């Protein structure tokens, strides 16, 4: 499949029409006559920009293209307080800054705050480098601030309703778990498995085990089921067990310490699965010789 042309903007992404009948970020023939170069420092980012991080690698690719071909599509801006505030084209603006360009081509357009926010949200949601939590937050903002239903959001961003719904559910995770997903330390598949744990503190404890033990998604599903079963089991006095005690944070720290001691003893990866009712210790070995070495340390080499 051929790559999208550089600079192809929101016109290909947003089907909603503005009052002039022109898609929000498409440059009309009349507007193309009004392109002008302005000092780069006169252009400022919009405070309505919902994007919180910009991945460097795609930005480097854009910089190289600008070096060779210049900025093909002008930035769309609106006049605000003596400056030109970006409506569309923040990546081009950032790339221009890094390249040290003195001027950039712009087209001025009138747009309300609501128009700017909606355009920015939908443009960002179309980008492949958006992290899952930014994507989820974008969908929720469209739903809350623009009263869009999941079906409408899905149609506007070109995704299925199920994918939109699943993304939005990620915001039900503990805030620290959300950060792990945003940092790509926890995959969306792992996060979906952890969502089956209803207690947020327990979600955090489970996430910690998933990362430390490098569990697969399937193994994470089993771990989550163990956590949820423990939460559903009443304590001895008939009350619901608090998440912090199932397993307790102190117990979890103790298990980590045991793992470290065993790792030093056996010189291999050790993982302990612990719950109040049962547990499992796993030792990894790498080939027959390594297995024999571990068996000798266990005193089981003659078994």
TrEMBL record:
SMART domains: ParB. The keyword DNA-binding applies. The keyword Zinc-finger does not apply. Residues 36-125 form the ParB-like N-terminal domain. Residues 231-250 are annotated as: Disordered. Transmembrane segments: none annotated. One of its GO terms (cellular component) is chromosome. It holds the Pfam family ParB_N. Keywords: Chromosome partition, DNA-binding. Coiled coil: none annotated. Belongs to the ParB family. This is ParB/RepB/Spo0J family partition protein. It comes from Luteolibacter ambystomatis.
